[in-house]
Design brief:
With 356 residues, the protein is of the alpha/beta class. It is 56% helix and 16% strand. The radius of gyration is 41 Å and the shape is elongated.
Length: 356
């Protein structure tokens, strides 16, 4: 350190002065005589030499440790601690005079103890409550502006996903959200929740069960700590239908509507609202088969055309097998001949293999 030699000189002068004062106190006189001079000069030079040798450990090392420690202290903590220390010292200064009037040994000692206590309490209290302190004076805590702006930016950039009644009743939204593929905040408008409650209270058993299932799905979503779901009170008053309200909210919030309702899908897209269709997602992740590939499948029923058989893959894809009627209730190996993509999903046509 470039100030090392300077600290040695300061240490030599300080300790030389301490040695000189100790020698005078021991002799009881400041006069330099033949008898006192060797002791006074010896103590002064000895103190100076001791200070010169020990000053790096007594000054430089503590200063370096303090510097390294200050580097690791956040700016907000450092500023709050300094302000709290000043406030604590001011309070102790106000109390110092009346306390010093106490009889010994309290009068001489307690002001110093009070200074230590109030200085420590002031610094600690303000470091712990620095955000409230700075906000009270309308100041942003140093070092927190960037993180708050980043947090606000991440909140504003996170997409909003409005859940439709049909997709909640469908139930697959809970499993999809659990996987983490739905990046953003799930929002359920109150009018959607009210429609679910109306369906759950229906006199029709099927509708009632569907409504209750939707409420159970919302409960699953809400109880998953990894899913951000909120219920919002936004309710456009100039439209009456639930679908129209969702489209209006999607336009106002620049949000996507999550649904599996084909009609809502088409109407929303015509009005420029982004749609996330669960059925389209399910079709997109289904296994892809090419013409010529072989599939083992169980034929379970007749087809619409003569001599056709119908079977289903594990993901629900329908497979129509030409000349498959004789193999009903049997598992056979079929060859894919054609794949047809419809609005309802993917349809596979096949014929029994040579082993069938």
């Amino acid at each position: 350190m470039r100030f090392n030699f300077l600290f040695r000189i300061i240490g030599a002068l300080l300790y030389g002065f301490i040695g000189y004062e100790l020698a005078i106190a021991f002799q009881g006189s400041v006069e330099l005589t033949t008898a006192t001079a060797p002791l006074i000069w010896g103590a002064t030079l000895g103190g100076a030499l001791l200070g010169f040798l020990l000053s790096p450990w007594l000054v430089t090392a503590p200063a370096k440790a303090a510097r390294n420690g200050l580097r690791n202290i956040p700016m907000g903590d450092l500023l709050a601690g300094s302000i709290g220390l000043i406030i604590g010292l001011l309070i102790s200064a106000l109390l110092a005079f009346p306390i010093s009037r106490l009889p010994p040994p309290f009068g001489p000692i307690l002001p110093f103890v009070t200074m230590l206590i109030f200085g420590y309490l002031g610094a600690t209290a303000l470091v712990m409550r620095q955000q409230e302190f700075f906000k009270f004076f309308g100041i942003k805590p140093p070092g927190l502006e960037g993180s708050e702006e980043e947090e606000e930016s991440s909140r504003t950039k996170a997409p909003i996903l409005l859940l439709d009644t049909s997709v909640i009743i469908d139930g697959r939204i809970a499993d999809i959200a659990k996987t983490g593929f739905l990046l953003g905040q799930l929002q359920v408008p109150r009018f959607v929740l009210q429609e679910l409650q109306y369906i759950a209270d229906s006199s029709d058993a099927l509708r009632r069960n569907r409504g209750r299932r939707g409420l159970e799905i919302l409960d699953r979503l809400q109880n998953n700590p990894n899913i951000d779901i909120v219920f919002v009170d936004d309710d456009p008053k100039d439209v009456k239908q639930v679908d129209d309200k969702l489209i209006r909210l999607g336009l106002d919030k620049d949000a996507a509507v999550v649904t599996n309702d084909y009609n809502l899908n088409r109407v929303a897209q015509l009005q420029g609202v982004k749609i996330l269709n669960i059925n389209e997602l399910a079709n997109a992740v289904k296994a892809v088969y090419l013409p010529g590939e072989e599939i083992p499948i169980k034929i379970i029923q007749e087809g619409k055309e003569a001599n056709q058989g119908v079977g289903y893959l594990e993901d629900g894809t329908m497979v129509v097998i030409e000349n498959g009627r004789p193999y009903i209730n049997q598992e056979v190996l079929v060859h894919v001949t054609k794949i047809l993509q419809t609005n309802a999903g993917r349809l596979i046509f096949a014929v029994p293999g040579t082993d069938g």
